[in-house]
UniProtKB/TrEMBL annotation:
This is Copper chaperone CopZ. InterPro entries: Heavy-metal-associated_CS, HMA_Cu_ion-bd, HMA_dom, HMA_dom_sf. The lineage of its organism: Bacteria, Bacillati, Bacillota, Bacilli, Lactobacillales. The gene is copZ. It holds the Pfam family HMA. SUPFAM superfamilies: HMA, heavy metal-associated domain (SSF55008).
Length: 75
């Protein structure tokens, strides 16, 4: 079965340093189906590539909002 890859940009509010970026990336990478995470401090966003048969955009947003001190939503 072929995986369904999705690439989505998420706005992430509240980050102020490289540690913030690493914290968000670590949290997102704990989810199943995550293929690539690129969080950009200056742009206040993250571009995430994932298998949509294993995880949804809403689950990614909830993970960021619950496990970090930042607020995420679809960009």
């Amino acid at each position: 079965m072929e995986e369904c890859k999705m690439k989505q940009t998420f706005a992430i509010e509240g980050m102020s340093c490289a540690h913030c970026v690493a914290h968000v990336e670590k949290a997102v990478n704990e989810l199943p189906g995550i293929k690539k995470v690129a969080v950009h401090l200056k742009k206040n966003n993250g571009v995430i590539k994932f298998d949509e048969t294993q995880v949804t955009s809403d689950q990614i947003i909830e993970k960021i909002n619950t496990d970090t001190n930042y607020h995420a939503h679809l960009a």
